[in-house]
Specification:
The chain is of the alpha/beta class. It folds into 3 domains: about 110 residues, Rossmann fold (3-Layer(aba) Sandwich); about 190 residues, NAD(P)-binding Rossmann-like Domain (Rossmann fold); about 80 residues, Alpha-Beta Plaits (2-Layer Sandwich), CATH 3.30.70.260. About 35% of the residues lie in helices and about 20% in strands. Strands 8-7-6-9-10-11-12 form a 7-stranded parallel beta sheet, with helices on both faces. Strand 10, helix 10 and strand 11 form a beta-alpha-beta unit. Helix 3 crosses helix 6.
Length: about 375
Amino acid sequence: MLKIQTLNNISVAGLERFARDRYEVASELARPDAIMVRSANMHDMDVPDSVLAVGRAGAGVNNIPVPTLSARGVPVFNAPGANANAVKELVLAGLFLASRNLCDAWAFAKQLDGSDAEISKAVEAGKKNFVGVELPGRVIGILGLGAIGVKVANAAHALGMRVTGYDPKITVDRAWQLSSAVTPAASVGQVLAESDYVSVHVPLIESTRGLLGRERLASMHKGAVLLNFSRAEIVDEDAVVAALKSGHLGTYVCDFPSNQLLSCDNVIALPHLGASTRQAEENCAVMVADQLRAYLEDGNITNSVNFPELHMPRDGNQRLALVHANVPNMLGQISTCVAQANLNIVDMLNKSREDLAYTVLDVDSPVNEDIRGLLGGIEGVLGVRVL
């Protein structure tokens, strides 16, 4: 029986992917085989040494100690694209809110008082204060053309906007999905200099922390709108507030409220609603549950942030899965140990990612538990599983 520990309320649709006759799923478990998490902070958590994998029911993994888990040979899975439509819709809502001054207009209408005739008169007198702009013909720049960025770019084009995008690491699949009408930019600076609206969709890594600071914000059009539904730390908050107060930046729309932002005019701060739809929560949970099952049952890896992708069909043979250092002669040592155990390899696949490597091999006869000790004794091997 495999044990899955949940650190947050995970959608039932995802939990139902774990067969009850093979899995035990609970929020409190001794020695779990895997952990499913949404927003819980795992950095201060004492992760049991029994944990073989961690699944994040969402895209970002900044609440998970990925380097520590990598050193232990534990893959971390996420759900890129599962919440993409939900975030795209919220970005579009942000575009409309900012372009038509809807938040200020709603606040104005909410405080109206008097008879219907008096309210009507006040409406006619006050609506001139909320004149906005239409989106067709305006330029929107997209920083990051992953699952969300591509959807935002295509949707903005469908609204009649001119779209430019920048992503030096765009995948072939995403490039195929991107509208041919989107103009590729050569740099972040080009996107900022050419756009009336800029929407940020990059992951939070060391190179993107503070990506948009004072100098880059100063290069934007005067009165431009900045939308950040990625991560708060990607934008220098002090620089944004300074740009807003100077009048250079028109509006900042984000999903990450703070005391400083809430006290600043021309900020639309939403309470981290990006993936807060029933569909997105279900999609994320189902995707990650399936990925955890594929790894625990067959050793296959999809959408891991720290391990290589690996898929090897299973034809009923006994399978060995090894996590090890990405160093020379490792496969030779593994093959020698398998031969010493009088096992014949019928299929084998090895993939690497930076300092980690992962090897899956099928053998044509039952595996004696002694093989685990033989393989585990190789210097650099972090984990051995018999599947």
